[in-house]
Amino acid sequence: MSPDSSMVTEPTGTSLQRLAEASWPRIGDESVLIFEEHHWTVSQLAERVRRLASGLRDIGLRPGDRVVVCMSNCPEVGVTYQAVWHCGGVVTPALFLLSEDELRHVLTDSGAVLVVTTPEFLPKVTAAATGGPAALRAVVVADPATPPPAAPGRDRRGGPPLIAFSTLETGPEARVIDSDPASAAALMYTGGTTGQAKGVLLSHDALSCAAWSVVNAGLEDGDEAPRMPTLLLPLPLAHAYGLMITVAGVHTPRPRTTVLMRWFDPVRFLDLAEKHRVEATALVPSMLQLLLQQPLEERDLVLERVGCGAAPLPRETAEAFCRRVPGAEIDEGYGCTETGGIISATPRGRSRPGSVGLPVAAARVRIERPDGSAAETGEDGEICVQGPVLMTEYWRAEEETAHALRDGWLHTGDVGRVDADGYLYVVDRIKDLIIRGGFNIYPRDVEEVLLTHPDVLGAAVIGRPDPTYGEEVVAYVQLRPDAETTADDVTAFAKEHLSSAKYPRDVRIVDQIPLTSVGKIDRRRLRRSTF
Description:
By secondary structure, the protein is of the alpha/beta class.
């Protein structure tokens, strides 16, 4: 727990739509969003929100209804989120990387009445919606450049009617419908790396506190600059962190310009960072690794703060980026869907190697032993969280909810420890623990060593059953282009740098380490290919 968190009053008791309405006059008529060379002001976005809310009510959206949003990044994503909240609805983000079957599960399980998408994903969305979810009434297609016909029409394959986003924005501005701050604001589906994705229900208060915590952690004492640093955002807005950043705008004390990318591309990222003199960004480790493959030294970058989360960040990757981009500081954070995307963050100028920072003001952290008692300082145990950022429940899953929230604490399933100053260190996932001959082996420890090999670009470690030792360590390794290193070479390197219990006896060279839709190592896929 951070030393002063108990003295901070979290922003609870107000719905997200009321917070948004209050924030727009405070920020003023400023340009706050840049997307594909177009600048959007607060007043322009606010007007679109109110008009879209009116259109959504006209087609039957009612308080409590779920709306699936499966779109590439664009201004219409944030407008849709706010408009749904203005109607009292529940936002259900769905990553555009989901397969047709995965999307059908989200539509059906959530009981969504509408789905909003962009044209490039319309075939997948209509296929997932056809013959599936009974509650779905329409598919709204949002893209000003290539809208579908203005009149609602039925998909040719017999799916729900298609409605152009632009036609829903033509009516009068809607009156905001207030919501109970404890009621559902978002139904987010986990990545499903351990099975079929399950819904996480987050209240208005939980999302508000998560977003406020991020803003609060990023502010510096005595900082009276007229604007906050320009932010370049390549992360999907359907990701927990992306949703949190969308909500963060209602808590920013001063204007901030966000440069939004439709999706991440390393060359385009660097072009935008140069052009708009971007000082801050938020990335996942796989994005940093792709940027390291670019000629960073040839770029005129002014990046100062690079937030990084969603997956473990190899120390070698962080050090290489900061070395090649002078002045940049990588601040790791940690969170999960069940906490609105945030648990800890690194204060400016106070990073510690390997740490994910200090617990944010709206989250208390406890490290728990297997018997349920509290671990000592520096002792590994399960990371447990308490505070207003917590989810309400797993959607329609009472037993799983009770198990995850037992004794009033969210049990994250992650192993970690806290040092004497309160800094949190994430060791690994409990379920990924490998027990070889009675020794506990965390995959991340092995991966960190493998990534120090000069020819290794990526590494992923899992365990497989072994008749002698119970489990054996298996390493999947992605080599740098033109590298001539063999699997035996990697094994010998690991043996030199790891204990006899830890080094992998089974090394497999692959073209690419598989990642989930949120940039984490897809260990489930690796296990399927191993056994």
